[in-house]
Queue: 2 jobs
Job 1
Amino acid sequence: MKTALVCGAGGFIGSHLVKRLKREGFWVRGVDLKYPPFADTEADEFIQGDLRDMHICKQAIDRQFDEVWQLAADMGGAGYIFTGDNDAEVMHNSVQINLNLLEACRQGNTRRIFYSSSACVYPEYNQLEPDNPKLEESSVYPAAPDSEYGWEKLFSERIYLAYGRNHGMEVHIARYHNVFGPEGAWNDGKEKAPAAICRKVAETPEGGTIEIWGDGQQTRSFLFIEECLEGSTRLMRSDWSGPVNIGSDEMLSINQLATMAMQIAGKQLLINNIPGPLGVRGRNSDNRLIAEKLNWAPSQPLIRGLEKTYAWVEAQVNASQAP
């Protein structure tokens, strides 16, 4: 039986990845500070521990694994990343985790490791126009991310590539673009736009008003969790390191995303655009390289994933409001 270690297995993407690996027949060990908040973990073993602690990393990697998936990070949505209040923690915590994990893998002779980087690595100067962002993988330099989270992700990419060159490790790096779906953060201040908008729509009665940060014309693309895992496993089991974008190229404005959520809910609501943390003006996944290297592209339109996500968020809202 093949074995896998999922770091960040209590998080959104990590908990879904554990489920997929179990369906594929893997024996899975998860490790995280916390258990998944919305469903029981399906990991065969789960270590509740802090990967900033080298002792925990060595405890997690006490054998050779066929696959190590590194998804653990200090992260969140725009309200967490772009205020500037959490920069030191975001950088320190994530870099410490990656340094510890790579060294523990090297010492434990585990060679195949996946690292989840982010579209936040791309230069702000290539994302100033909402309709024409430039995000092909080679455009990452000269570096100028718009957040310390992006700087940390870019630095950590280089750590993984250096360990690959110097220690014969097989690293695979994906730059994720706004992954969303059920069982993700929806009301704790770290939720991303799809979940936040679904919550606002679900909470607001017909004819009411929801608030959207900025003028709502800032653009993004969003990738449903099942698509993310398909692209990620294809990359992990290829002979190519990347880095590569794993995202959707179906770009729309945040106001359009809100309108789509209203259509799914069957509600007519007003949008009030207010000041708030925004990030870059335009972002969209450039999928030419992954199509060339892995012959893959996302297959579902955004609305299919948003329908599933809205239904789940609406159920959470209803449960939270029940007497």
Note: The longest strand covers residues 112-118.
Job 2
Amino acid sequence: MRGSKALLFAAAAMPLVAVMPAWGQTIPKKPEEVARPGGKLPGNPKLALVKVADGLNDPTGVSVAGDGSGRIFAVERVGRVKVITPDGKILPEPFLDLTKTNPLGSEVQTGFVEQGLWSIAFHPKFKDNGYVFVHYASLPFNGASIVARYTVDKASPNQITKDQANKSVKVIMNVPQPYYNHYGGRIAFGPDGMLYIGRGDGGWEGDPLNAGQRLDTLLAKLLRINVDTADDVAYAIPKDNPFARADYPQMMSLFGITEEGFSRIKIGARPETWAYGLRNPYMFHFDPKSGDLFIADVGQNHWEEINYQPRSSKGGENYGWNLNMGTKCHPMKGANDTCPQVGVLPIAEYPHQEPYPGAPKLTQGWGCSAQGLGVANYGGMDKAYLVGDWCSGRVWGIEWDKGASKWQMQELMQAPFQFTAGATDEKGYVLAVNCYCFYLEDKGPVANPPGALWRLLPANEVAPGMETAKVKLPN
């Protein structure tokens, strides 16, 4: 781990960031400013989960093309992407089927529930160039994380055939994976046109590689790359990435450089890094309205956290893992642990059923795995980040309260299934997918009970004939 001590010192010394964008949000400076369950969103939203489509095998992601077609693309863990029409019909042939592109078998490793095909992202100019990008665990590459680009044939807009897939594929990134969990998963284009990639810390538990605080690895990061390159160039490093020149070859000099200048030198730092100190950022979302970024970082045994970056961020944020879990210490030993707070605080956090070792089990307000769904600007919500929990089925809303000048976190409902992912549709409504694929009950990506695609609608917009989930509403 070359330079790990120096990098860790630099990370711990990084000041907390407090940015005030035009909307008025601030990033918490103290743990008591971080939102927790029990708050109330300013608009007091009332939501319903309306079923869009059923019969999806372990859906792990959802996206839209942004081409005006109204199509929704549901990602199935096994390695398929299904097209769902605006009227909720699932087309019989997959949009992309990575289980059939390799003559020796599937491209996708699915042996563990966290493995599989996770995400599809459509190029901002998809309507013109037909580029789509996917992120998955690779079977041929022993579980490595693959980001690849495929090109849609305009003569076949609803299906990338096997021949077209193999003819057009371009591998963007191949990241070896040391263990079979904590891959991250989502990829998405930001408002700047760059591709962002969520990468977990590589797995096991407790970050044994210390990837969270190392800058010389792509693990435990949010990456940012430029994919608008020649076909023989996988990707380029955006010049304004925070560590783009941190390891730039240079002559050594002891004098004539400022303290700030020396602090920018991070030998071995990966220039793809946008943010670090993340445990498993499986879901993250940009607000379509403001361009601000929310990151749902899956916690370990006791707490989940949600991080926020205003669009004005220059990157380089350190979110503290594996020295902290949100505002808490890692490892946790008891209710009153004390430790330094490293890097940037989250805007919200919520506990597991056992919020610290040996704690009495909570009966409400808990979860186990934060799956960001998307940013809502409707139904009384103003840039509210909706988060679905994988274990409890709770849906949380997190929003800045202008009147109180603080973040609020409210439980909006509890559904009887596991949320896995979400996105906003072309009309701005938040979509969500669910599975029935818990670790100890996993029967495999096509043998688990089928999941579904849902839309989070304001309760007063639910029309007669719409099928809604039977949810519990908080008191």
Note: The first helix runs from residue 4 to 13.
